[in-house]
Specification:
The protein has 474 residues and is of the alpha+beta class. It has 14 helices and eight strands.
Amino acid sequence: MTTAAAGGADEAPPADTQPSGGTSVPAPRKPLPGEPPLRKAPGRRSVTGTRRAIAALFLLPALVLLGALVVYPIVYSVYRSFFDQAGTGFAGFGNYKALFTDDTIRTAVKNNAIWVVFAPTVSTALGLIFAVLTERIRWGTAFKLIVFMPMAISMLAAGIIFRLVYDQAPERGVANAVWVGVHDTFAESAGFPKAHPLPVHPLKAAGGGAFVTKVPVRAGEPVQLPLVGVLPAKMPSDAKPARAPQTGGNGQITGTAWLDFTKGGGGSPNVIDARELGLKGIKVEAVKDGKVVASATAGADGTFTLPASADGAELRLPASNFKEPYNGVDWLGPSFVTPGIIGSYVWMWAGFAMVLIAAGLAGLPRELLEAARVDGANEWQVFRRITVPMLAPVLAVVLVTLMINVLKVFDLVFIIAPGSSQDDANVLALQLYRSSFGTDADLGIGSAIAVLLLLLVVPVMLFNIRRIRKEGRR
C-alpha cells in the first residue's frame, strides 16, 4: 500500500483538468496515430464573406456618386454663401444677414413656419380620422383608394388642378362656384349689373349708382322705366315679353320696367316692342322729401304697382339693382393664397398619412380595445386614451416625414400662386429658385438660403434617425 501510495503521488494530473480547482478547460486534442493534422480555425470574416478591400471596391461607385451629388454641392454651397453676387468678393455673413433683413425673404421664412406647423398637422390628423373611421365599414378599402389617389399625380399636375379650382370666375373655379351658390342661397343675388338709361329715357342718375325719374309721377299716368346695357346672360331665365301697364284704380301708380333693346336691331326708344323683355325682380321705390314712402318689385313682364301714397313722388331704381354679382372669395389673393396652397397639399398627402396610420392601426392588439369597451369606455375614450397613445410611433413617423417634405415645397407654390401674389405666398425653396436664376440672380443669397434650408432640415432628420434607432432597440 505504501508503494501504491507513493506511485500515486508521483503521477501527473490529467492534461484536461486544472489541479488547483476552478472551471476545467479542455486542452486541444492531439491527432491520433495515422490521423492527418488538425486545421487551424480561420479568422473572422465580414458579413459578405469577403475582404474589406473588395467590399470597399464595390462601394466605391456609390461613394463617388454620393460625394459628387451630395457632399460636394453642400460644401460648395457653404463656400459660395460667403461671397458676393459676382463671386469674386468676400461678403462674410452679409448674405446671411440679408436673409433676416430683406422683406421678401422674411416673408418666405414666415410662410415656411406656417407650412411646417399646419400642413403636416392637418394632413396627419385627417389621415388618422380617415384610418379610424374606415376601419369597420365595408367599403373602407374603396374610400382609402379614393383618398390615396391624389398621391399618384405629380406636384405639377396638382398645382394646375388647383389653379383652376381656385379660379376667381365662378363659371370656371369650383371653389367659388360652390361658395357663390351657398351665398346666393341665403343672400339676395345681384339684379342687373351695368344696366343704365339712355339720355332719351325718362330716367337720370341720382348718385351712388341709383336712377330716378326726371319728373314726379301722377296717379292715372302709367310710368315707363326703360333701361339698356343688360347682358343676355344676366336676364332672368323666366322673364316674359314686356307689357304696357294698365291704369291703376284708387290712385295707384302703375308702370313697366323693361330692357329697351330689340335683339337683331329695330324697335324704337321709350316704346315697348314685341320682342323686348321685362326686367323681372327689379326694385322700384317711391321717394318724397328724401324718404321712401312705397316700394314694389317688377313682375316677369316688368309691370309693377305702387299705392296711392306714391302720387307726386319720384320713382327711384336703387343701386342694389345694379351692383356687381357676388363672385366669391379671392382664393389666390394676398390674404388666402397660402392657406389655399396648403389645402392643395393636404389634399395630396392626407392619403399618404392615412395609409401609414391604417397599417399601424391594423397591428394594434384588439384585446386591449375590447377590454376597454367591456370596462365601460365609450368610443371616444378608447380612441383618445388607447388608440392614439399606441399609434404614437406611427404618428411621429408621418408627422416628421411631412415636416421634412414641406420644408422643401416648391412646385405647388410656383404653379398655383399667380404673379400678383407670389411674393405673399413665397417660401424658402421658391426664393432659392428666384435668387439663383434669372437676370438679377445673386448666387450668394441663393447659396445662403440653401444652407439655411439644410440647417432647418438636419435637426428634423436627426430626430427621425434617433427615433428609428430607439424603436429598433426595443
